[in-house]
Amino acid sequence: MAAWVRPLVLIAVLTVLVSCVSFYGTGRFDNRYLSAEHQIAILERQLFVSPEGLYDVPEFRNRIMVPLLMQPLIRAGVPPMPAFVTVRLVSAVAMFAFLWWLVRIRWGRSEPLTAATLAVTAALLVLSFTGPTENPTDYPDLLATAAFCGFAVANQPWRVATVAALFALNRESAIFGGIIWMVTAPGPRSRNIAIGALVSTTAAIVALVVRSSFALPDARALNKVGLLELPELIRHALSDIPGPGEWYVRLAAGVALLWLWRQWADVRAHRGLLHASLLITAVTGVFGIWAEVRIFLVAALCFVLAHVAPPQKHSPNVDATADPAAR
Question: Which of 47, 253, 315, 316 is paired with 126 by a 20 to 30 Å CA distance?
Fold first, then answer.
């Protein structure tokens, strides 16, 4: 079998498996049309529809990347639901393909370790699929995170800044590109902090400007502090019988998976990416809704990539991508 066939097969299999779980799992199939309609509602500045009635999520109003990608298909006569599925599948392929290129080609890791990286990422995605409708920002979110990690390790600030500005149209988590740069990029710390702050500020401005443009009247502009809702979530968790679909069970399973990954990878971890994972987890824990497990995907992928990235050099003058060590 040709060398290029194996990764293509793996990417295709993971895309289909993960997307099928997302499409059919946790009752989402019954609400499949709502997932597409929610994307159209963002561009049309309409309330979101659910079986319980109309509602709004102000944080979603800057997430126009998927709706914009759906528009050419819809204008060509494709119904919203197939257009939504098409964009979702393409974004999954792009994410897995970039991960393969980064780990296998750019960082020079072995094919089995690269395949395992993609498989662990797929498993983390499956664990994150909670809620009655699909949230299509997850694949682009992880694509951007992988790009942040790769470009930061390679000391390419303009690429990090470009990805942050672009993917702020997908989700406000693009600000994490600046955090990843601050603690990962080689070079003087003061320089990295300044560049990282600029990257995060740029992403935040883009997200807020777009959000204000598509927001409903009197909607809040900033994300709410999700940590304030954690006590109520814990109270409900303690009063329920634990099941595989509960958010805290999925979080625990994700932590266990990352621990097993750390033991199995047996590669000297990149300290900067580990620190980025911890910092992003802290920020996410304050502003995110813990019951939406997908909010921790960015931090989790940083942790996964920390165990396949080239070891971080102590000297800022040494190229961090020069180590071709592979298992």
Answer: 47
**Which backbone phi and psi does 49 adopt, to 5 degrees?**
-105, 135
Report d(CA 282, CA 122) in Å as an integer.
Answer: 23
CA distances 238 to 17, 255, 256, 276, 304, Å, are: 32, 20, 21, 31, 30
Task: Flag whether pLDDT at 11 surpasses 60.
Answer: yes
Q: What is the pLDDT of residues 291-303, one digit of tens each?
A: 889 999 999 999 9
**Average pLDDT of every residue of the chain:** 90
Q: Please, which residues bridge with residue 48 across strands?
A: 55
Those residues whose C-beta lies under 8 Å from the C-beta of residue 25, and which sit 6 or more positions away, are 126, 129
Residues in contact with 65: Cβ distance below 8 Å, sequence separation at least 6, in sequence order: 137, 140, 167, 169, 170
Question: How confident is the model over 205-214, as a mean pLDDT?
Answer: 96
Please spell the DSSP secondary structure of 274-287, one letter per residue.
HHHHHHHHHHHHHH
Check if the beta carbon of residue 80 is closer than 8 Å to that of residue 40.
yes
